[in-house]
């Protein structure tokens, strides 16, 4: 599978998902991206629809891997001052 670089909308959406537990783009806030970007992230396996919250999305472990090069559990296990910044290039699958 050829790696695909995330576009600006997908990158904004994925970064926002990494900051919250779940996100509903229909909540009336200006986000800088829409459902199409979230659906593309879902198709890549980087985000998922939240089953008990219709219209909401959440980041997956692969989403964290795309941003930081490690899963959410690995990232959060690091001390705050040792957590890496986001990778420069967000692509999926990584390193392909």
Report on this structure.
- The protein has helices at residues 8-17, 35-44, 61-68, 72-77; strands spanning 4-5, 47-49, 57-59, 91-92.
- It is of the alpha+beta class.
- It has a single domain, classed as Arc Repressor Mutant, subunit A (Orthogonal Bundle), CATH 1.10.10.
- It has a two-stranded antiparallel sheet.
- The mean pLDDT is 88.
Summarize, please:
Helix 1 crosses helix 2 (35-44). Helix content is 35%, strand content 10%.
How would the blueprint of this fold be written?
Layout: E1 4-5, H1 8-17, H2 35-44, E2 47-49, E3 57-59, H3 61-68, H4 72-77, E4 91-92
Helix pairs in contact: 1-2
Q: If you compute it from the alpha carbons, what radius of gyration comes out, rounded to the nearest whole angstrom?
A: 13 Å
- Strand tally: 4
SS-derived structural category: alpha+beta
Please give the CATH class.
Mainly Alpha
What is the CATH architecture descriptor? Orthogonal Bundle
Strand order of the largest sheet: 1-4
Any idea how many domains? 1
Largest sheet: 2 strands, antiparallel
Helix content: 25-40%
How many H/I helices?
A: 4
Sketch the topology as an H/E string, one letter per element.
EHHEEHHE
Distance between the termini: 8 Å
Arithmetic mean of pLDDT: 88
Low-confidence spans: pLDDT under 50, at least 5 residues? none
Query: Overall 3D geometry?
Result: globular
Percentage of residues in DSSP E strands:
5-15%
And the CATH topology? Arc Repressor Mutant, subunit A
